[in-house]
Structures are given as C-alpha cells and as structure tokens.
Amino acid sequence: MPALAVRTTCPYCGVGCGVTATPQPDGTLAVAGDAAHPASLGRLCVKGAALGETVDLRGRLLQPAIREQGELRDTDWDEALGRVAGGFRRIIDEHGPDAVALYVSGQMLTEDYYVANKLMKGFIGSANIDTNSRLCMSSSVAGHKRAFGEDIVPGCYEDFELADLVVLVGSNAAWCHPTLYQRILAAKAERPQMKVVVIDPRRTATVELADLHLPLKPGTDTWLFNGLLAYLARSGAADPGFVERHTDGLDAALKVAADCADPVAVARACRVDPALLLEFFELFASSEKVVTAYSQGVNQSSAGTDKVNGIINCHLLTGRIGRPGMGPFSLTGQPNAMGGREVGGLANMLAAHMDLDKPAQRDAVQSFWGAPRIASKPGLKAVDLFRAVEEGRVKAVWIIATNPVVSLPDADQVRRALDRCELVVVSDVVANTDTNDFADVLLPALAWGEKDGTVTNSERRISRQRAFLPAPGAARADWQVLCEVAQRMGFDGFDFASAHAIFDEHARLSAWRNEGERMFRLDGLAGMSRREYDELEPVQWPVMSKGEGSTRLFGDGRFAYADGKARFVPIVPRAPANATDQDYPLALNTGRVRDQWHTMTRTGKAPRLSNHVPEPFVDMHPQDALASGVREGELARVSSRWGEMVARVQHGGGIARGSVFVPIHWNGQTASHARVGALVNPVVDPVSGEPEFKHTPVCVQPFAVAWHGFILSRSELALDDAANWTRIEGGTHHRYEVAGRSHIARAAGWARKLLEVSDEDADWLEYEDQGSGMFRAAHIVDGRLESCLFVSRLPDLPAREWLGGLFAPEKLDAGDRASLLAGRAREGGAPAGPTVCSCFGVGRETIRIAIREKNLPDVAAVTACVKAGGNCGSCVPEIRKLLAETHVTQ
Ligand SMILES: Nc1nc2c(c(=O)[nH]1)N[C@H]1C(S)=C(S)[C@@H](COP(=O)(O)OP(=O)(O)OC[C@H]3O[C@@H](n4cnc5c(=O)[nH]c(N)nc54)[C@H](O)[C@@H]3O)O[C@H]1N2
Ligand SMILES: Nc1nc2c(c(=O)[nH]1)N[C@H]1C(S)=C(S)[C@@H](COP(=O)(O)OP(=O)(O)OC[C@H]3O[C@@H](n4cnc5c(=O)[nH]c(N)nc54)[C@H](O)[C@@H]3O)O[C@H]1N2
Ligand code: SF4
Ligand SMILES: [Mo]
C-alpha cells in the first residue's frame, strides 16, 4: 500500500466495505478495496470503485446560506447558527418542545447521530427526532425487539459462507449488497451443494445465480412463512429442546399458522407453483445451516414487522440461530443504519438500546447526560412528523443528511409541509437538492473523505471512516454544527473537542447502569486514547473488553428478555393496505438499480455509473403495456391517488402481470417528472411505522409527445419548456434525453435559442428532413464540439456513446465533423449499447455480439474476450442473462 493510503469505509451500503483511499498528486483519488477489512476482504462493487469520481467539489455546498424574500443568500456561520438556535429557542418558548423536530439519517456517522439524539431527547426534551431509517430498517428493529427483547442481528457475514442454504427474501443483493452477494457466490462455487433461494416477485439480477426462485405475489410473505412454520412443525424439523428451554409462545404462533397448513393453499395464496414451494419447504427443513437474509421486500410493507417475525419464528422453531452458518439476518441498507439504532436515533427509542417507556432507563440516560429534562413519550415517526409539519403542529424542522422531498411516501405532501413550515433548516453536502429548495437556512456539511468518525454495518461491525481530504470552503462536520447550536441554545454537555470524545461518551453510556439487561455494550471501547480511536480496527459489538468483539449472539440460547427467552409472534397474514382497483389496476413496486445511490447526489456525478441505467423507467409486463396502451421505448405517465410521474416503458425486468417496477433515484435535479415518491401510498406498518414502498395502486397511460430527442452539451441547460427531460452525467459533457410537444418544424428555432447560437453562426451545422420528421444540429466552437442535438418524431435516435466521445478531443478532425450529423463513426462499428460492465465500460451490444460471433459459452469466456465482469463482478448476473438470451435466439 502506498504511504499516503488511508484506510476507511465505503459511504454507501450497509455491507460496509473497507476502502483504501490515496489522494494523487494530480488531485484525483485512487480507491481500492482494503484486503484487511473483514467485511469485504478487499472487494468493492462498482459504486465503491467509482468513489474517486465523486469527491471533487462540483455541485458542493460550501457556504451557509439564509433565505430572505424567497432568495437564498450566502452568509457566515455566526449568522446561520444564530438563526437556527434563535428560531428553535423562540418556537420552543412559545409552543413547547414538541413544536420542533429533527429529521436525520442512517448516513450520518455515529458521533453525529449521538449528538443529535442527545440534543433532542435530553436537552430540548422531546422525542421528535426521527430518521430515514424509519423508511428502511424500522420493521426489522420492531421485529427484533418483539422476538429477542432487543434490536439485535445475531449473525455475521461469515454465516453466509458457512450455510448450506441461503434464503434471500425481498432482497436484490446482487445490486444492493453486491460484495456480500459475491461472497455467497464464491462460497457456492467452492461447495456446489450449497443452495441459494430467492423470494421476490421480480426475477432480479439476484435470481440469475440462484437455485430456486419463488416469484411470490407481492405482499404474501406472511402466508409463505406461516406455511413454512406449520410445515417445519409437522415434518420433524423442530428442535423441541431449544423451544422448551429458550422460547415462549410457540403454541399461539402455531395455532394461527394452522390456517396455512396446506402447502397447496399457501402456494395459491402466494401465486407460486406448489411444487416449487414444497421444494423450498423441504430444503429448509432438511438444511440445518440456513441463513434467511431479508431486506426491503420484507421491511417496507404495511405488514413489515409481521414479515420479520414470520421469518424469525421459523428459525426459533428449528433452533437455528446464533450458531455458525445459520440465523435470520436483516440486511441493513445505509452505511450507518445500525449505528443510528445504537444511539437511539428513532423517535420511539432512547439511547444505547434503552427504551423511552422504561422510567429506570429514562432516569439512567438523564443522569448520565446531566440533562435538565428527558423526553417522556415517543416522538412522531417520519410520515406522521411531516403531517404534523403540514398541520402546523411542528413549526421548525432540521433535516440532516437525507432528502425527504424525494424519499418519503406521498412526497408532494412533504413539499406542502415544508412550504408551510416556519423554519426549515437543511444540512447537506450538495448545493442543489429537491429538499434544499425549501430551506430557510442551508448548512454545508463535510462529506465522505473529509469527515471523521465511525459507522456500524449489518453484522454489528464498527469501522472507522477517516478523513483524508481537507475541509472545503466553510463546510463543517454535522456533529460540530449540532453542538454549536446546542451551546447557543444554552445547553451544557456539548463541548466535545472531537469525534473521539463523542464516541467515548457513547461507549460509556452503553455500560452505564447496565447489569446485563442490555446486550449492546461497548465497554471495551470506552476510555480509548485518541490514537487508539484513530487506529481502531473493525470490531463487532458487543465489545466487553479491549479488542474482544462478538461474532455471534444468542448461541447459548439466552435472549435479551428478562427471562432470557425469545418470543414467537403469532402472525395473522394480511394483504397490502390498498388493493388495486379499476382506476388503478396495477401495483407499483419501487426499488434500486445497480449503479445509483438513492437521490443520486453523489453517484450521479460519476460518468462511469451513469450509463448502466441512464433514464427513469417503468418496467412492466408486455401484456399490461398492451392493456395500458403504451409501448416499449416510449414515455408513459404513471399515476396514483397521490401523484404522478413520467418514465420510459421497459420490458425484461422480470416482472409478473399486475405489477410495475420504478426505480427510486431520479428527482427534480436529474429529471423533469420522475420523483416516484410522489406516487407512493403513505400507509405505514402499525407496529414500526415503516411505509409500504413496495405496493401502491397505480395506472399507466401514454404520455403523448410530438418528438423525441437528445442533446449533448458542455454547459448545463435549462430545459424547462421541454415536455420531459432527464440529465445524465457524461464527464466531458451533459447528456439530456428530451421530448417535446411542439411541432417538429419548430425544433430548429427552439434548439438555436436553447444552445444560444445565432442564425449566422458559421459553426452551427444543421440538417433537417421534414418528411421523415428529423432534425439534427451541432455547434462547434474553435474546432471543438460544444453541443449537438438530435430530434426525431420516433424514439429511433442514433447511439449516444460515439457522439459523447467527440467531446474529448480538443479539435474535431474532418472525418468526425463530416459524420457528426449522421450520428455514427465513418468506419461504422456497432454501437456498444447501454453499459453492462461499469468497471471497464463494456456495453450490452458489445457483449451480445461477442457471444454470438465467438460462440462464447460462459461468463469466464466473456470476461476473457471483452473484459466485462473481470473486476468487481457486479455485472456477472447480467452477463449470465445475456448468455442465456443470446443462446436461445441463435
Ligand atoms: N445500488 C444500490 N444499492 C443500495 C442502495 C441504493 O440506493 N443503490 N441503497 C441501500 C439501502 S438504504 C437499502 S435499504 C438497500 C435495499 O436493498 P434491497 O431491499 O435489496 O433493494 P430494493 O430494490 O429496495 O428491494 C428489494 C426487492 O424487494 C422486492 N419485493 C417487493 N415486494 C416484495 C414482497 O412483497 N415480498 C418480497 N419477498 N419481495 C418483495 C422487490 O421486487 C425488490 O427486488 O440497498 C442498499 N444498497
Ligand atoms: N419509493 C421509495 N422510496 C424510498 C425507498 C424505496 O425503496 N422506495 N427506500 C427508502 C430507504 S430504504 C431509504 S434509506 C431512503 C433514502 O433516502 P434519502 O436519505 O432521502 O436519500 P439520499 O440521497 O441518500 O439522501 C442523503 C442526503 O444527504 C446528503 N449527504 C451525504 N453525506 C452527508 C453528510 O455527511 N452530511 C450531511 N449533512 N448530508 C450528507 C446527500 O447529498 C443527500 O442529499 O429512501 C427511502 N425512500
Ligand atoms: S458493496 Fe456496499 S459498502 Fe461495499 S463497495 Fe459496494 S456500496 Fe460500498
Ligand atoms: Mo435504506
């Protein structure tokens, strides 16, 4: 490792991969996997590998700003902090502590999170602090607490390798937890008898390498796991000794599950092939080492907590928990989803796994903090919080490291709420987000690489994020800003000198008045010197003594309830909250794509991540498309009772009839009408408060336009008057996919105005064919391509990749100039198509042609021939799919 390499942790998903970051003399950043990090063992997925393309200061928020007469103006910290502290103080004095709120994020570091929670619950004295983890992990938290008595993930990543059966429920791990998925695949390659089962209504990339796929009807997991419980009890797979000694409540759970005793009836309810369902039941019954890992297909449901307990019930019945190679495993989404739970970031938690409704624990926290008061009742959960903001019950909200105008359900309601709110404070790292648009005070935060602290991954492993870049502009760490506001509000207990000091307090609180009733403990991390903290190696909690982490919990059958026993939870299956109806006949499922992270504020900057899925899409079954009157490749309007959006129709995403899938990433910064959150039903799980992001009744209709087009341009453009647009990062240029309603004959005038060229400009080349409805233009300045535009009545436009390449040279040669308006290189050459392998930039068509022409039999051969799949492996499932398709069509 070069001398300057800094070992840190990836800021994206909950796998928590180790990264070595090495700033280069030319100002760029070299990033590699950290072979010494136990979570990832040197692996990185494409998003991690592209981190170097996201750390420049383009688009960063570098100065505090204040809104006056509707306009933001830059200011200094003194005025900005005064505005926040003064505003919060005034509103609390006039309306009480419940009139203010914090809305924070699983992307904050533990130290930031700890301070936010301390300020709100201990000093302001309200529990109105909730987090985007409400949208993500809260059903798992609630399920863990019901089953185990505490929010604990019992297992570790190694269990996935040791298991004989890995069941992935509602998890597209190939795209969302890619390096963990790679670990499963590597283990499977070594031990081919190991089986992988995927339970997901869609045939996702994760399914490509599975042994069995159960494409269940959306929302029917509770039937399936009740059916499994009944089957296991019947088939002799139960562990009566374990159940007797270590659990409580089996009879009640079995009684309810008896309704699902007939596997054929369960298969019917879940709309899966009965033979496949039985195959899964038998596999589960006969495999002692089973890991059941689950993610948002489970959590984000109005029955999310029940789904979690339905899964845990099956592991308790068989005693398969806490031992190597087995257990229920909640995959966390964000890099610090777990850390947020440790500090009690949710509105219904306290701190260090203590509870708001236990007076002794409230007293413990208050005395430890020396706090003047302590919240005495749960605060508002995310969806209710923004309702209270709209109704004026909450008058000030401080949003940190999350983008609720995009990510909450019924997202237009969030806009209305923020529009009405007296004081909206937003801390972010970028200048322009859909939420920043509503900020009265905008506070610049240090980003990944600049900030310093800890995160905890899905397997309870605490890792350091270390700074290796200087603080840019006026940006400050979130914890520091929170402390300064607290101090200005007159509170003691916030004079931390560093993240290290905060971590130390957090570690000490975990042991405070803890006679063993809370398993979350960091005793062994308390009292570290600054140097020890800086050099901290990744370690799994509980850490009872220095250097002693805990790989697994509950292996001895002792759970966190006072009697040491785990609880079965009886599950009464129920369908998603709102069934589809005549007006909204399709069920909207939403989720992620491989190369983008949430609202794209960081991944959206990396050119190599932008071409895997360049545009918002609605994936639907061809027959549903036919019935809806829409066609593949054309734009469609998707609407629900709550809102609407526009996306391009696509097939091939492996979706059954009756559902559509839309990605969550696009928003007002990257597209004109693609904020899918505006459509999502705000109904929540009654126990956890987690929204039903995977099931909203919608309808799909044609979005009629007169022409389709795209523009490549060095400068950013304001396309407000286009009927629809999406902006894609091209590195040397911006790419815009556009569609218009005006007559195509007017396109020339529109283009000249948009690209600011005059009629006489000698370097403005134009080609128009009114007959076939086509217009093409290019603007060349000093021999360099400045912009080009292609418009057509049909969406049959030339490939963008070759044209994009023309922005690299300082001067276009005559040949390129001549073929520019043709939209393809003189020597021909097939277009590469959308990117499949982002590491080496290999397109779909390149791979297809190689498979066909060279008759490549498998992934290894494709990699050897065109490099695709040879680095991080995230695209291997897609290559497998292309191999299957190409061989079929040959
Ligand atoms: N590339 C990428 N990776 C990410 C993220 C990202 O933005 N981009 N975000 C991170 C975060 S915060 C999170 S929370 C995780 C999420 O990771 P995942 O949960 O794996 O991802 P999702 O795409 O939200 O949804 C998972 C699957 O649930 C399925 N599903 C829908 N309804 C049901 C159902 O009723 N039952 C079952 N069994 N399945 C259903 C969907 O079809 C989908 O394939 O990803 C993390 N990793
Ligand atoms: N329809 C639908 N909606 C969903 C989901 C879904 O599956 N479907 N999934 C939900 C889930 S699981 C999640 S986790 C959420 C995610 O949703 P969000 O949290 O809203 O998404 P992000 O884009 O990650 O927002 C993080 C923001 O914090 C900023 N930021 C990054 N680092 C820092 C920092 O260090 N400090 C500060 N102050 N700011 C920072 C980023 O620029 C960005 O604006 O979306 C939820 N919404
Ligand atoms: S798998 Fe997750 S933590 Fe690892 S590099 Fe990819 S996004 Fe980062
Ligand atoms: Mo998440």
Automatic annotation (TrEMBL):
Protein name: Molybdopterin-dependent oxidoreductase
Keyword terms: 4Fe-4S, Iron, Iron-sulfur, Metal-binding, Molybdenum, Nitrate assimilation, Oxidoreductase
Recorded family membership: Belongs to the prokaryotic molybdopterin-containing oxidoreductase family. NasA/NapA/NarB subfamily.
Domain 4Fe-4S Mo/W bis-MGD-type: 3-59
Gene3D superfamilies, A to Z: 2.40.40.20, 3.40.50.740, ADC-like domains, BFD-like [2Fe-2S]-binding domain, Dimethylsulfoxide Reductase, domain 2
Iron in keyword set: yes
Top-level taxonomy: Bacteria, Pseudomonadati, Pseudomonadota, Betaproteobacteria, Burkholderiales
PROSITE patterns per the UniProt record, alphabetical: 4FE4S_MOW_BIS_MGD, MOLYBDOPTERIN_PROK_1
Cofactor(s) required, per the database record: [4Fe-4S] cluster; Mo-bis(molybdopterin guanine dinucleotide)
The organism of origin for this protein: Massilia terrae
Keyword Transport: no
